[in-house]
Design brief:
Helix content: over 70%
Radius of gyration: 18 Å
CATH superfamily: VKOR domain
Shape: elongated
CATH architecture: Up-down Bundle
Structural class: mainly alpha
CATH class: Mainly Alpha
Largest sheet: none
Order of helices and strands: HHHHHH
Number of domains: 1
Number of helices: 6
Distance between the termini: 19 Å
Number of strands: 0
Length: about 170
C-alpha cells in the first residue's frame, strides 16, 4: 500500500463508498467520546455522570449494574475499543483506487454488527431488568444502528469482491 495514495484518497476522493465510510468514522468518533465518559465513570475517575431530569433516566445506575461488568471488566472501555477499531477499519487502505483490500470492509461490517448487536442486547436489559435509561447508552446504541445502516452495503460488497479474489 502506498501511504501517499491512501492519504490522497481519504482526504480528496468523493466516491459514495468513501462518503459512507467518512460518516462511519464520524459516528465512531462520537461513540468513542461517549464511551470514554462512561469508562471514566465505571473506573472511578469521575463519581457521577450528568443526566437528564426525570425518573426514567439513571445513567449512573445502568453503568454501575452487574451487567456492565459481566465480562470481568467495565463495558465502556470495550465499546470504546470497538468504535476505535471501526474508525481504523473504515480508513485502512484508503479507497479501491488506492488499493484498499475488500477484507477491510468485511471486518468493518463485523465490528459494526457486533457493536449494534451488543447495543440491542443492552437496550433490552435497560428496559426489562433495570427499568432505567442511560442517556449515554442510548446515544451509543443510536450511533451503532446508524453505522450499521451505512456499513452493511460496504460489507456485502467487500465480501463479494473478496470471495471473487479467492
Amino acid at each position: 500500500m502506498n501511504a501517499k495514495k491512501i492519504k490522497q484518497a481519504l482526504r480528496k476522493e468523493t466516491s459514495s463508498a468513501l462518503e459512507r465510510k467518512r460518516k462511519i468514522v464520524l459516528l465512531s468518533a462520537i461513540g468513542l467520546v461517549d464511551f470514554s465518559l462512561i469508562s471514566l465513570y465505571q473506573t472511578g475517575v469521575i463519581r457521577k455522570l450528568p443526566d437528564l431530569p426525570g425518573k426514567i433516566f439513571d445513567s449512573n445506575q445502568v453503568n454501575a449494574s452487574p451487567k456492565a461488568y459481566a465480562l470481568g471488566m467495565p463495558d465502556g472501555p470495550l465499546s470504546a475499543v470497538v468504535f476505535a477499531a471501526t474508525m481504523a477499519l473504515a480508513t485502512a487502505g484508503g479507497s479501491e483506487k488506492s488499493g484498499r483490500h475488500p477484507i477491510f470492509d468485511v471486518l468493518m461490517g463485523g465490528a459494526v454488527l457486533g457493536n449494534a448487536a451488543g447495543a440491542a442486547e443492552y437496550l433490552v436489559d435497560m428496559i426489562v431488568n433495570q427499568k432505567k435509561a442511560c442517556l449515554y447508552c442510548l446515544l451509543g446504541a443510536g450511533l451503532s444502528f446508524a453505522s450499521l445502516k451505512l456499513a452493511a452495503p460496504e460489507a456485502i460488497r467487500g465480501a463479494k469482491k473478496w470471495w471473487k479474489r479467492r
